[in-house]
Amino acid sequence: MKKTALIIALIAVGLVGAYYEFGGGAAKPVAKPVTVSTTPADELRYPAGAPQLAAIHSETLPQLPVPLADPLNAKVTYDEDVTTRINSPISGRVLNIKAQLGDEVKAGQTLFVMDSPDLGNAIADVEKANADARLKQLNLSRAKTLYQGEAIARKDLESAQSDYAAATAESRRAILRLKNLAPQGINNAAEGYALRSPISGVVAQRQLNPGEEVRPDLPDPLFIITNPAKVWVTIDLPESLLAKAEVGHPVSISVDAYPDQHFAGRIEKIAPALDPVTRRITVRCSVDNSKNLLKPEMYAKVTLLAEADENAFRIPNGAIVSNGLYSYVFVEIAPGVLKKRRIPLVVQYRDYSYAAEGLTAQDKVVTSGALLLNSELDTAK
């Protein structure tokens, strides 16, 4: 009897489990797949919240002059026409530094003051030369009087004239030497030698400290003064691109510090000869740096541009889908609605391509996820 009851209980448990297993209980929710509509042809429609929309990015494209080649490596340098590198013309010890890095200075403004025995020697040379010239002038005046009274021979007069001329020349030499050391003059030699800036500008570099001994033969300049609003951008141009570079042609300059900004410039100079080792030629570009964004020693990318007024849309190559001989992009014509559009390319380079037709300034082009959209469109067809 007990055995029969146990068998009946086991059968009941099995029937209950089968009931829930095969749908007898509450229905389980099932995720609905996202459907994609492809009406009309070459068009995808996604409902709001579709996961595909999170994988794509669309944006309007800039219209830029068509480049003549891929971007070239370049470097921002000082404009040497408005830059001076200052060394001390004499030896001495730094007493006081008057200008700091980044300071604006005027022409003639003191950069630093130093104690210099050479300055004392130069001042003493001027005083001795002037004193000797005055003495020789008196001797010449006396000789002229004596010669007129026939008290001395003519050769004595000529000797006095020669001595005076030599003394005058030595005086001029000593004065010029002192002016070379201190073009703006010396107010008080006891206060030390003041080295002044020959031009107005900004202190771009300072290579000295208080108490330091300086000499004229130091390898590095003590100060670099420049106008930061003017810089040069130099390119090592490959020989194969030389025919595309001409003085006056426009260029577009970009730097890592401002990846979304392009600086307009022009080719200013082309070197007369190539480097025999690298087979490259130095090309110098001028650029307006009135906002002081470009800094000397920055690395840059320079794109040679065609001398034309027409611009083209710059398209990232990742946004382009190729099909045989034709190129296409996906344009977002409405939220969740993307249309595949054929575009004729003007030129194609390593990172970007350019199209003059097929797009408008208001079109939002898919720049990320174009391959995903193309695959879904092919599948839907």
TrEMBL record:
The answer, when asked if Iron-sulfur is one of the entry's keywords, is: no
InterPro entries attached to this UniProt entry: Beta-barrel_RND_2 (IPR058792), BSH_CzcB-like (IPR058647), MFP_Cation_Efflux (IPR051909), RND_pump_MFP (IPR006143)
Task: Report keywords, A-Z.
Answer: Transport
Q: Which SUPFAM superfamilies match?
A: HlyD-like secretion proteins
Which part of the chain is the CzcB-like barrel-sandwich hybrid domain? 84-217
Taxonomically, which superkingdom? Bacteria
MF-aspect GO terms: transmembrane transporter activity
Gene3D superfamilies, per database record: 2.40.30.170, 2.40.420.20, 2.40.50.100, Helix hairpin bin
Domain CusB-like beta-barrel: start-end pairs: 230-306
Query: Per the record's keyword annotation, is Lipid metabolism included, yes or no?
Result: no
- What Pfam family is a match for this entry? Beta-barrel_RND_2
- Mind naming one GO cellular-component term on file for this protein? membrane
Q: Which family does it belong to?
A: Belongs to the membrane fusion protein (MFP) (TC 8.A.1) family.
Return the NCBIfam families for the record: RND_mfp (TIGR01730)
Protein name per its UniProtKB record: Cation efflux system protein CzcB
Q: What phylogenetic lineage does the species belong to?
A: Bacteria, Pseudomonadati, Pseudomonadota, Betaproteobacteria, Nitrosomonadales
